[in-house]
Amino acid sequence: MGAQAWLDGNFARLVAESRVAGAAVAVLADGEIATAAAGSANLRAGIEATTDTLFQIGSVTKIWTTTLVMRLVDEGLVDLDAPVTDYLPEFRTSDPEVSAAVTVRHLLNHTAGFEGDSFKDTGRNPDAIERFVAEIMPKSRQTLPPGVLFSYNNAGFVLLGRIVEVLRGTTWARALRTEIAEPLGLTVATDAGEAILHRAAVGHIRQTPDAELEVAAAWALHASNDPAGASLATTAAGLAAFARLHLDEGLAPDGTRILSAESARLMRVATVDIPRRSARQVRIGLGWHLFDWNEPVIGHDGNTIGQAAFLRLIPAEGVAVAMLTNGGNVAGLFAEVYGHLMREHGGVEIPPAVDLPGEPAPIERPERYTGSYESGLFRFDVSDVDGRLWLETTPGPDLAGLGPKPPRRELLLVEGDLFKALDHDDPEDTGLPLVFVGDDGRGRAAYLHNHRANPRID
């Protein structure tokens, strides 16, 4: 069955069964893009989700920012292994001596070693990103030497966006529009003022697992984080068209070269391993996440306030799947939609998420894990209660009021230092994998790693 026929017959049903507010999907296969949409773009306003609805793509934006940076590399304006201070002399973290060694490559593969989650408001003027670098970055903790460990880093992509601004002499948003969106003929919105001119989705959240979805308190994060994924919105078909650019080694459909073939391929070359949390993401290239499944797959996900985006490419098959959602059981929808489309059109089987080997393994040294860990976004407290480990998560001030309080989760041992954090009160919860990394010199883990290396603070 072709992609369009399957989407027409199944997508709306799967969106409803997954209790997702609204969603749109686009499949690039055999050179054609099939699309579908279902549900609501805005439950409060009663606006239908359609294939021309703009959804936020969140951190998938990082691939767009990487593309802008690699264009600078193509022109000889940026050296991936040059210090960031060569382009931004004002850049520094809480440890200027260490941060002086951070390179452009460290930013692109999330190994810069500084705390990367600060969503401070620096205004919506054209200098928002410039102000973030000057005012916020000096307060960021340098928790690791650069190049040592993968730790997902939003602020690194803000710095990359500022490099684009400095070398292009314009704003990041304008560079994205003129260098990528317009040559590809894509409709995008880079802020709420642009989004309101289109049919635009809003995010939805549930305050408790059994509550009804409600419109989120804010449409987007602050403009200071735009190059990392604060507000960029497009259609599912637009995201698939962007994916086609990378599958076609940097060529637009009309033959315009937007990115060199060498740079497009280099973005897909592994540069660092991700500490084992699952079989679904194993390495990082430049921007791209690399999935070592039964066939090489690249991609990226994005999460904003009540919206989630998914993008997967199978380069050898010329296949891409983009799905944009705005609240609900999006993980369940992803499993159903991508499980079918990746298998039928790319011959790829998505491996299962980390799961428990029957009964949870006994925890022989709970003292290695108990204690407090903290990043810019959250504080994590791990406690031992009658031989069982529990995780309490407290949002930092930047996230106050933007979503429900994170649930208390039990840490169930999978193997080694790998755990699954399970919310027993949510029947749809499949658990969050996390791994404890390193040693603090006292036999305790130095980091709680949940895609970010959260350092121990006790």
UniProtKB/TrEMBL annotation:
UniProtKB keywords: Hydrolase
Domain Beta-lactamase-related: 7-329
Gene Ontology MF: a single term: hydrolase activity
Record's keyword annotation contains RNA-binding: no
Keyword flag Aminoacyl-tRNA synthetase: no
Pfam families: Beta-lactamase
UniProt name for this protein: Serine hydrolase
Encoding gene per record: ampC
